[in-house]
Write a structure and sequence with these properties.
The protein is an all-alpha fold. It has one domain (about 5-55). The chain is about 60% helix and about 0% strand. It contains 4 helices and no strands. Helix 1 runs antiparallel to helix 3. It is globular, with a radius of gyration of 11 Å.
């Protein structure tokens, strides 16, 4: 499997964005969502690890 860091670098290259721009919430939402999706399917990382990497917060608690 591919590490999240390599997925991020690939998405940055594809979209022509800097890593900070891709990880930041706000503008470029589609690129960020695509990077999260690709991270999920291409890496063996769990959702919590991907969430921490992209600084996602839980909105639902069980």
């Amino acid at each position: 499997m591919i590490p999240i860091e390599k997925v991020i670098k690939g998405c940055c290259k594809y979209y022509g964005k800097k890593e900070e721009e891709l990880l930041r919430k706000g503008k470029g939402k589609r690129e960020r969502q695509a990077a999260i999706y690709v991270s999920k399917i291409m890496s063996n990382a769990k959702n919590t690890e991907i969430g921490r990497y992209f600084v996602l917060k839980k909105t639902i608690r069980y």
